[in-house]
Amino acid sequence: MPDPNPAAMEFLLNRRSRPAKTLTTPVPDRAALMPILTAAARSPDHGKLEPWRFMVLERNALLRLATLIDECGDRLGKPPEDIAKARAQYADAHLAVAVIEVQIPSGKIPLLEQTYSAGAVCLALLNAALASGWGANWLSGWASHDRGFVEAGFGLADNERIAGLIHIGTETSAPPERPRPDLDAITTWVTE
Ligand SMILES: Cc1cc2nc3c(=O)[nH]c(=O)nc-3n(C[C@H](O)[C@H](O)[C@H](O)COP(=O)(O)O)c2cc1C
């Protein structure tokens, strides 16, 4: 017989991100962040390659990254309003964890599966932060996919890219529920 964990199911059925721009201080300190990172690292990983790592971006690092957005946006031809929004993602944040996908050459494990694993780490990190009582939000943004930005700002190597930026902080307001998928529309029961 199954051995249910109703508290875990209750959390999973009701979890909701908190928009990053509504997050404020305090943010988790290093001690509070460790179990959250530990939970995130406990994610499915085919071949035990550990094709990911964390960069914890504290306030000063986020401010430094914000100063690199203008050059990136100009180079990509982004309009000023997009550049301002992207800059604010960093300049207004107090803590974010970058989940870095580290692609490991392997004859056995396809790179795509390493990407899936990095995405799983992002969700596990988001959920662990939410379950710990913090507000959290998984963001990317065009700058996070730009090689110039991630190499200059994060020092990423050629085999690395940003899977997600998990912003974590104290929530100021709970957002309303958003529409969720129609299970009947996305589920096929294969009976034979
Ligand atoms: C890979 C990925 C990147 C995302 N990037 C952004 C982003 O840059 N900006 C944004 O507003 N939302 C972004 N989102 C969506 C937010 O995480 C959004 O808050 C989320 O859909 C809320 O869902 P939830 O309440 O089910 O957690 C992203 C989501 C994913 C999966």
Q: Which ligands, by name, code or SMILES, are bound?
A: flavin mononucleotide
Low-confidence stretches are none
Number of continuous helical runs: 8
In the CATH scheme, what's the topology name? Answer: NADH Oxidase
Main sheet properties: 5 strands, antiparallel
Give me the count of strands.
5
The ordered string of helix (H) and strand (E) elements is: HEHEHHHEHEHEH
Helix content, binned percent = 40-55%
Top-tier CATH class: Alpha Beta
Q: Bin the strand percentage.
A: 15-25%
Instruction: Specify the structural class.
Output: alpha+beta
Average pLDDT metric = 98
Rg, rounded, reads: 18 Å
What is the correct CATH architecture? 3-Layer(aba) Sandwich
Gap from first CA to last CA = 25 Å
Shape: globular
Q: How many structural domains in the coordinates?
A: 1
CATH superfamily: NADH Oxidase
Commentary on this structure:
- This protein has one domain: 3-Layer(aba) Sandwich (NADH Oxidase), CATH 3.40.109.
- It is built from eight helices and five strands, in the order αβαβαααβαβαβα.
- It is an alpha+beta fold.
- The chain starts with 5 loop residues before the first helix and ends in a 6-residue tail after the last helix.
- The site of flavin mononucleotide has 8 residues, from β4.
- Belongs to the nitroreductase family.
- GO terms for molecular function: oxidoreductase activity.
Task: Spell out the key features of this protein.
single chain; 192 residues; alpha+beta; NADH Oxidase; five-stranded antiparallel beta sheet; globular; binds flavin mononucleotide; NAD; NAD(P)H_nitroreductase; Nitroreductase; oxidoreductase
